[in-house]
Amino acid sequence: MDNLNYTVLQLDVIKELANVGGGNAASSISKLIGKPVNMTVPTIELLNYEEVFEQIMAEDVMVNSILMNMTGDAEGKFLFMVSDDVAEGLINMMLPTGIEANEEIKQSALNELTNILITSFINAISMMVDINLISSIPIYVRDMFGAILSSVYIESEQYDDTVMIIKNEFLYQGDRMDSSLYFVPKPGVLQKLFKLLGLGEEQ
């Protein structure tokens, strides 16, 4: 694990914010589906673009991905990524028992879960550092991991080489479902957030 030049304290603070957001997201999902859901964030990593493929996942692995943009006082892109098995488990969690779901309904379920998760995370940051952050509507894509991640950089050359990977564990009816939330910031965004948190100089 590289984590670039960021300190353990900086990563711990981001992990705590992610756990706060994850707890709020789990509460919202629990209310939505009427069943208890828990979520934890066991690890957070900060890696360079190429290191993601070396240490996290190969480029040719097929994944289900939901993209959301973050704008406002800090900008970046979020990618929620899950395997087919985990996607099926999360869809079953989100939908009422016994419903016959077509592909559109399944994608809508994953979009709604991602929207709740990312909005909760953004709100946790906004409340902590008192900045205005706005999330876009979620967009579902199924493709190879490398194709999805590289498309984020192709869309704009002004994104940071640093990728933040937030591991998520959903606990539902005795099952644990692992997923990952990738955050690709615009240059200087992470430094700005750490400065606002009193954890480093803005660059």
- Structural class, by secondary structure, is alpha+beta
Number of helices: 6
Order of helices and strands: HEEHEEHHEEHEEH
The average pLDDT is 88
> Tell me, what's the shape?
globular
Helix content bin: 40-55%
Q: How many strands appear in the DSSP assignment?
A: 8
What is the distance, rounded to the nearest whole angstrom, between the alpha carbons of the first and last residues? 24 Å
Give the radius of gyration: 16 Å
Oligomeric organization of the protein chains: single chain
Description:
There is one protein chain. This protein has 203 residues and is α+β, with helices and mostly antiparallel strands. 44% of the residues lie in helices and 28% in strands. The chain has helices at residues 8-33, 49-55, 84-94, 103-129, 145-155, 189-196; strands at 38-40, 44-48, 62-72, 76-82, 133-135, 139-144, 162-172, 175-185. Strands 1, 2, 3, 4, 5, 6, 7 and 8 form an 8-stranded antiparallel sheet that branches. Strand 3 and strand 4 (76-82) form a beta hairpin. Helix 1 (8-33) packs across helix 4 (103-129) and helix 3 packs across helix 4. The longest helix is centred in the middle third of the chain and has 27 residues, at 103-129. The radius of gyration is 16 Å and the shape is globular.
